[in-house]
## 1
Amino acid sequence: MTDKQHLLQTILPIIEATATFLREHVGGVRQSDVEVKHLNALVSYVDRQAEEILVEGLSKAFPEAGFITEEETIVTERKTYNWIIDPLDGTTNYLHGIPVYAISVALECEGKVVLGVVCEAGKDEYYTAVRNEGAFLNGNPIRVSQKKQLADTLIATGFPYYRFDRMDDFIETLTDCFRHTRGVRRIGTAATDLAYTAVGRFDAYYEYGLSPWDVAAGSLIASEAGARVCDFSGGTNFLFGEEIVVMQPHISDAFWELLAPLRKK
């Protein structure tokens, strides 16, 4: 296996090239170019071409790895190592001219993410982590927020946009967050939510209805920055379990109580 730090440095230019491609096409996608994969899930040629750039480069960087991708420009069997990639997390933002969208690239090995990069392309910020080696923003070490009181915290979430079966529980939890924290933000990209929690801009993040490519890279970065990362039951099935909670440790017990409506089975 290639040294992971060396591999990280090898793939950063590939992600930079993808980010450049995304920025070059901002505002250039016509409505006729947009497809609806399912309710409120949009895709365009930009998503697919960005994924092709990533797949081509990552295949050369680490030929032994398989792929788990959102747009399925390549389909491979699961291998010991697998790239989990989202070429454009925040497609709806991107198509509406909102400059908050990200590229998420992770390397998974036997169910655990061992390397992750989240590039917030609109701001040219690169969040990186290798397991057990810390988290970084543009090469500088980062840590989660150190706030001690829940009332001083800012929370991130994602609104359900196609799965409404847990809507009542979600609204109850959201209401409790409104009442007991400084506020709640929904910026439209899980990868960025996770990165912002890692760097301390948010104090906690929770969401359900997610896919592995939404959370793979960001969950590692947040964990390496000191966050507690789990699913709604407190377990470790957040990569493939479609739900995630990320909390800085000082407020994790108090925030966990706010999530009680969503945690009930």
## 2
Amino acid sequence: MVEFKNVSMSYDKEHDVLKDISFKLEPGSMHFLTGPSGAGKTSLLKLMYLAHRPTRGEIMMFGRDVAKAERQDLPKLRRRIGVVFQDFRLLDHMSAVDNVALPLRISGGTGAHINEHVEELLRWVGLQDKMSSTPSTLSGGEKQRVAIARAVIRRPDILLADEPTGNVDPEMAERLMYLFVELNKLGTTIIIATHDNSLVKKIGAPRLHLVGGKLLHIEGSKKDIADYITARKGLNE
């Protein structure tokens, strides 16, 4: 699904924030992206959602080198990628329903079935009582869940989340992580940047660890994720 080959990136063409990064993510996998502040996690995500191009190296996504893709091809590629931004990026004048429905409408969807699908997803993330609310009336955790619903509404092939639990309490953080795990079970490849090592250890998904713009691999396993799902189901029951 994703392969970086000796990728480096700089913003000023002099100082690399990412240095000779190479890794491969299989379709339907789930990984955490960890590392101290300034390690390059957000920069790596920007390359993956095609907001920037690398200074050097190849980035293979969906079977093509997206680093060399023509500008007119980028919107089509981006529609296969869902992104949960650290600052939410919700539209303040729109309700929760309209914010979540926006990706469907931009891609040409019409009709009442859009709202039905959106409302079902908002109920799934526990916002059944906030559908008509605008972002200014929502808490940080509620905004985060709206942002997550918007990112997954089109069932993206890849979901990228930048510190998705950074603005919520520990209980809500674990609830949101469980939603990501469930989405991963449906086949979406997921990469989550986080500072919360307790959640990383609890879920046990493989970890991509950045230090000073360089990548280390710290492995987990699908069995660890399966054990986490079983434990959460026990709590939910």
## 3
Amino acid sequence: MTGLLKGRAAIVTGAGRGIGRAIAEALVAEGANVIVADSGTSIAGEGGDPNVARETAKALGAIAFSESVASPGIAKQLVDLAVKNFGGIDIVVNNAAILRDAFVFRADPGDWDAVIRTNLSAAFYLINAASGVMRDQGKSGRGDKDGYNWGRIVNIVSSAGLYGNLGQAAYASAKAGLFGLTRVTAMDLARAQITANAVAPFARTRVTDIIQPANEAQKSYKDRAMKIGAHHVAAVVTALCSPAGKAITGQLLGVRGREVFLFSQPRPVARLEAGTPQTLAQNLTTGFADQFTDLTTDLEAFNTEPLV
């Protein structure tokens, strides 16, 4: 490897397994000092196993952190650990997520709260704790002769949060919210030259492992997903965290094998003048119908052969 990230300090959540581990491995391989943050819960967010973080950290020569980051105090402890051991924090990758699927008319509000807390609030807590340190580092010129222009935040989102998917109200809402958080983070930290981007991965994960296909389209989607290694996602995240990545912020990227997508972002595509309530629905239908977004799920939208 090239030592692209030599001397940089990184936190990766959900780094004990799957995509998170692949990202941690890639950052370590490029010289970064990494904290593997993973509470070792099941994909449903139940239980916990500190050995998940410990064993991965030991294998990578990293530091383990096995507490859940889904509270402001724990997120601060994690950032403090990076500062104590590495002298600062340069990279944050929010990857940790849980999944509790149910149709909206059957969902348990407690499951909704747990998913939002783990998949969205935890990311905010960590960004909140780390970004202040990053801004202070910018003022002090951490590690650069020509001024500190670092600070990289990468949020792992999902196509489910962009397209929607059956039974994934909590998961999709959290991931859509995480993209909104990415945009605002990029805006709030632009003057400090800290970047924030979102990456939607397509790869074999614990999420794809537990898919129980309900139809042929879902079966073929799962079969294709099982072919795609997480290292492709890790490569894109590493690129965003590199020195050249300073020019990329507020963007939404997708990674599917050797394919990298730049997603468009919601902007108005048509306009009309509103009428009365009695006529407006009809006007909307006649004026916008050919540009309405259909109810294609993310599984259907990406049900084609990937480049692997």
